[in-house]
Amino acid sequence: MNREKIIDFIKEEFKEGNIRNEMFPMMTQFGIRDYSETVHTVGLNYITAIGRHVEGITSLSECPVYPYSQIGYYGQMVAESQANYEVKVNEVRPDSIWYSKEGNNPILICEFERYEKNRRKDLKVKEKIENLLIAYHQLGGNIPIILFVYWSYAGENPGEIEEYISIFDNGFKKSDGSYIRGINALKTKYLIYRCVASGNADNLMLNQWVEVG
Predict the structure, then answer these.
(1) Is 30 helix (H, G, I), strand (E, B) or coil?
(2) What tens digit of pLDDT does each residue of 110-163 get?
(3) Global pTM exceeds 0.70
(4) Measured between alpha carbons, how far is 184 from 12 in angstroms, rounded to an integer?
(5) How many whole angstroms separate alpha carbon 178 and alpha carbon 181?
(6) How far apart are CA 140 and CA 156, in angstroms?
(7) What does R_g of the chain's alpha carbons equal in angstroms?
(8) Using an 8 Å Cβ cutoff, are 204 and 151 in contact?
(9) Checking phi first, is residue 158 left (phi over 0); if not, alpha (psi -120 to 50) or beta?
């Protein structure tokens, strides 16, 4: 599986929007109402659809992650007996996971999250990045691509986004004090995009996908 070709395909699609135009006309022609989780649902399904257009890839939306290994990726180990341990894990459910059809190994994990200029809601972006890092380790830490997309209205752009993105490199400390290490940059590359929502709450267009950093 050629990672750079997959990345180029993603970048080209976000720029040109051929799959958007063909399969998701509500994003490019008709508009979406900003109601409940509607924008989130459309966005994550669009990203999953991109994966299904890549040769050798299959993709799933909102797929729970079950750890590939019960020991050693992260978390606090609890002894059940001298020879039997398990890791306490948080279940995470990335918005999209792409798998290789040949080996069934994960190729890409993605979150699509809303940003609003509200400190409490802003932290949701940080939480989703942390969840991606948790999923990355639970899936074995050998995933070629991590994709994080945040969507926002045109005038709302988080000033803290670089700080949040650094979590992929530096890791983070959980509330229980345990440390989740960052990615292995030799094996994994992350892409960060902002989806700019234009229009109003009754009729949003999601046709501008901008790479960040």
Answers:
(1) helix
(2) 999 998 877 666 688 999 999 999 999 999 999 999 999 999 998 777 677 888
(3) yes
(4) 26
(5) 10
(6) 35
(7) 18
(8) no
(9) beta
